[in-house]
Structures
1.
Amino acid sequence: MRGAGFLLVLLSIVSGTVAQNSSLSAAIATLPPCAVQCLKTSLADSSCQPTDQACICTDTKLLGSVEACVLQACTIKQGLATKNTTMTTCGAPIRNRGPLFKRINITFGVLSSFFVMSRLAYKSFVTISELGLDDYFILATLIAGVPQTIISDRGLLPNGIGRDIWTLKVSQITDFLMYFYIMEVMYFAIVAILKMSLLFFYRRIFPGVAVRKVILATIIFNALYGITFVIAALSQCQPLSYYWTNWDGEHEGTCININALGWANAAVSIALDIWMLAIPLSQLIHLKLAWRKKIGVAAMFCVGFFVTIVSALRLQSLIHFGKSMNPTWDQWDVINWSTIEINVGIMCACMPAMRVILVRFFPKVFGTTDNRSNQYYAKYGSRSGAPGKGTAPSNGGLSSALGRDKNGRDKHTITFTKTFEVSHADKDGDEIGLVSLDGDSGKAKPKSGSSSSVSL
């Protein structure tokens, strides 16, 4: 009889009157006895009447007391079922940030794929140049990134990302944590591979001996960093399935400090990003460029600083990582910022190549003008030897009178002519090939295709 009385009290609390809604009666009847006892105890210490639904639903102290009691007296599954019933009956809004995540995930995934494919297609089919290690690593990043985008859309979204955990089925919670584990391992690997692409790009464009040693040391450190965290993520729980089954408190196993692992990875990644940004900027003083162009080159590399900012925002979202009682809602920020960080990083790594592509196909918009107004060209004409600014017009009579041929050359003078093979910077696929460095390492080497001739 007392048990039936508890159910009547609970029904009165959440529905007001039993007779008004038989479906609510059926829902309340399925609640565990532990939840009924918690509601009775908390109600005795509250000023709300058992039939005053509005008072009970707005009394935060009462609701907090009931929730704390349920967490102690009931199992996790029973607690989630109780919270789902009470929140639904009190008319709490259903929160869902899943659609927003879907738009962000698909948009950034498509953009990063477009950047990589454009870069590789331009090098392979337009300039017909050999791909470098930086190109292969960016391709590897894309190969790993596409499955991550698919898993986010087909794995995390259907299983509750951006929703409150008590609105989900038990199987959805387990599946969500399993997909989240896969995403965590993939994130550690993708970040390390992406950094490899940038580092090998630096190694290709900076020929200085000292800076190449620094870059090589950074490559080795990054490789060790990536391997270490991937292994740690793979083995963080024993048995492995305990990662996605321990939430219900009904399974046995052990895990390392998941919070510490996430924070350590984020901290090392941010420090490495700052170090990798300092490498190209430190070489600006050696560039034989006007100060305006130096600012432009610096701005191009500083775009990568946005990735560091995103990494810092992701670090802030790790505060409750691994300790959340509502992971499907709380870890939305972690997954969202991780998705943005990886895809923006891919786009930043492709920006030098995209600049060359834009200059090639839209030279009037993105190209640079050739200033031929200096004294040399004003006096001797254009670089190509064709009549231009500062060149005298051809005149047969005047040339003959001066003892010159029709091309204006002195008939009694030996003329030495030298021709060179000229290639555009983008032919070799080197995005920054037009930038030369001071010192021996930056001197241009003669082309093997040059030739010379002597005419009398």
2.
Amino acid sequence: MPAPISLVELRPQVGAEQIVASLVPPPQFDGATFETYRPDTAHPSQGEALQRMQELVGAWTKPKRGLFRKAPEVKPGIYLDGGFGVGKTHLLAALWKAMPGPKVFGTFIEYTALVGALGYAETVQQLRGSSIVCIDEFELDDPGDTMVMTRLLGELVANGTKLAATSNTPPNALGDGRFAASDFLREITAIADRFQIMRIDGEDYRHRDITGHAPVVDDDAIPGELDAIDGTTALDDFDALIAHLAHVHPSRYIGLVEGLRGLGLRGVRVLTDQNDALRFVALVDRLYDAQVALRASGTSLDQVFSEEMLGGGYRKKYLRAISRLVALANE
């Protein structure tokens, strides 16, 4: 097997068109269609959401008919509000696939990173003309980001773009300050009337252990662990990688993980700087989308965020990242 590369040595250069082109559903949703969604009959709201999403494709893409009778109003946006593992992202990806192009699909963080990289005006220009903008895991923990996103979506929908969004409830925070529809509508006041709200109930279909632990590997054992992974791997010191992330715009993190199948991190420690932590969260999202297996020494990856951080305003971001780190460390 080839020796692991080093992410610290990579200087990804990603242009505006490449960044926009990367706004598609992650690989784990390649098979996500309306036909492959299996609603739980014990929770009728799942079947209702599936039916409504299918109806929207027709309502949004077919010309209005009827000369004498006014067609019922169809809002240009839909918001799926529900717990973890009920298929919200599956339905969002299925809707994206069913709509004509051009179209974009990304997490809230990816869109705000796009604005940060290109500037607001250029982002509007790049996304203008999209048939639909899908926003997975819409977040409200940063008022500035929420304001920018609301303004951006308002401009796009005014030019005919349709919107679809899901909540960002993390798996280990169900029932604990859930991101609810009322929060969403309150914070996006300027465009709240553009969205139809649909609640999806149900249990996590994956039955994932939300209290899992990320195993710790000895430094000397990491190369062997990576050698057992089929494909390109990388090995870096944790502190060196955290420092490197400060010099790479989050919109370009996709260039760090492209083609990567495994990542070894030596000397993981508890992060105490909020900026370092948020950049690491953005990288974790990219690693998770690409399903990159993690092997790490030092502090367990599920303990990488300090208690102070977990009690702060970005709590949901960190809890979601922990869940993803646990999953990747157990790959």
3.
Amino acid sequence: MLTISQVSEKTGLTPYTIRYYEKIGVLHEPKRRNGGARVYKESEVSYIQCLNKLKNLGLSLEEITEFTREGCVMDKIQQGEDLSDYTPTLERRIEILEKHLMELEARRQEIDDIISLTEEKLALYRELTKEVIVDTR
């Protein structure tokens, strides 16, 4: 069993974030020692690492909550549970990821447009600077 500090070290999330995830229901509340300190099993640490990966993908906490509603489906399938039991869950996850990918692609297009505009301005200013240098000689 691991303390919240140890889980924090393993996952890169702060203890505050871990407690916040518990508070909003993204993460189930762990068992506690007699003194009230949280203790985590390795499987819970793996689940927190999964949440962190989803966060790093840029998913919102609402999307992460929806995405993980059925827990770690891949683990359940690898343990021999029937894939058909999770088809609706997998389809919902596909929807979430497809929507997220479309948003990312739109943001990439915006960034590409900004880069092009910046390159155009940079080229213009460099050209103007060359003309100023030639005129002053």
4.
Amino acid sequence: MKFESFSFAPEILRAIAECGYQSMTPIQQQAIPAIRRGEDVLASAQTGTGKTAAFALPILQRMCDNPKETMPSNTRTLILTPTRELAAQVADNISAYSKHLNLTVLTIYGGVKIDTQSQKLKRGADVIVATPGRLLEHIVACNLSLSNVEFLVLDEADRMLDMGFSADIKKILQAVNKKRQNMLFSATFSSEVKKLANDMLEKPKVITVDKQNTTADTVSQVVYPVEQRRKRELISELIGTKNWQQVLVFTATRDAADKLVKELNLDGIPSGVVHGEKAQGSRRRALREFVEGKIRVLVATEVAARGLDIKNLEYVVNYDLPFLAEDYVHRIGRTGRAGKTGVAISFVSREEERTLADIEKLIGQPIRRVTVPGYEVGSREVLLKQIEKRRSFAKKQQRGDNAGAQMIAEKNMDGRRVKVGKVSSTVKYKKIK
């Protein structure tokens, strides 16, 4: 289906063509008509499915149908995102869609001077894309009023809840204009997301375009078993021997990310890093150099898992598996986007085999394993049995300790001593006066 089918304004159609869009994706085909009709929308779709255009294009059209002057310290459209990277990406996309319209788009997030944002907010903006925490700061400081919001979008709602923004979102919902159209987009429909939807949406159009927690068919997945201490060697060898040119790598911690970037650069592989302790300017510079091909590897922590949109990205490497199995889907969703193919590689140490099993159960398929000569590790099956045995033993020991802890105030038959507790196998007594 073509975008022309929905009678967008010529200015919007022109921008769509300049973005290189041709046919609509499934989420766009279902969401655009509902939003154009003014319905609330609850949509579940995996990353790379065209979600931003699905809500932005019909909102822009509705704003064109009912033009209004920009009011100081106000906005007509508010879009909430979990991370700075995603906020910047969404704002860039909307700016591209509205480049031939007389509309202003503003991003609001932490990591930059709040005074500069305050000055821009006082002038007002037609569309504001914000992270919840910084937005609340401006609301409390009276830099922004939400009394005239007509369109409210929560993008990556499940991620915002996972990151602890639930209380912030509730405060924002209390401050925003009650007569508005709501759109909630989420990769998954968890119980928390459903509760938020019940509180926020009114008779929503429910859209699900993909089976939850599935990975795109365009992404080829592979696992490399390797000892934790040898992961750094392996990634340098693979990048060098296979001549990978653009690789996004995820680590578990910021410290691990910094160390890996340092080692890769020493190995002659130009690399940059993106994580929460880096200044926003440094993060944007690293991303720009990565996109422009000035560096071959961008190392990131979970903060970037849903916030990066890199066209034609071929390789995503899980240097460390994510703590949550669901985050694996979001990480590898950075590649294989918009119909392009990509490769997702995961380095799995002996200690991460259980996490891998959880991921394979979640996505409903085993992941192909490739052993690199010289990096072999022990048998996976034996290791999983050992892990299960240790877990079972720990549960039995815990049950035994709990039972012992309950044996208090039991009076002995001679009536002179009372059993007051049990620690491991030792029974303690106290004298009765």
